[in-house]
Design a protein that fits this description.
Length: 71
Amino acid sequence: MSQYRTSIDPDRLSPDSRLECSICWWVYDPQDGDEAGNIPRGTPFTALSDDWRCPQCDALRHQFLVIADDR
Ligand SMILES: [Zn+2]
């Protein structure tokens, strides 16, 4: 059993999935990583540590929503 709820379903996340902060709409793009958080380019969202926060508003990881790429 998982200890906490998450809106992110790992099965739906691919290594190049982009995710959007549901608070401030900052977008995590694996191609860019997160300079402020010392995340190198090419890091999938699923590889971020559990204490990683939105660099803009400090939102927790589970407050990010997957951006659907099926346009
Ligand atoms: Zn945010």
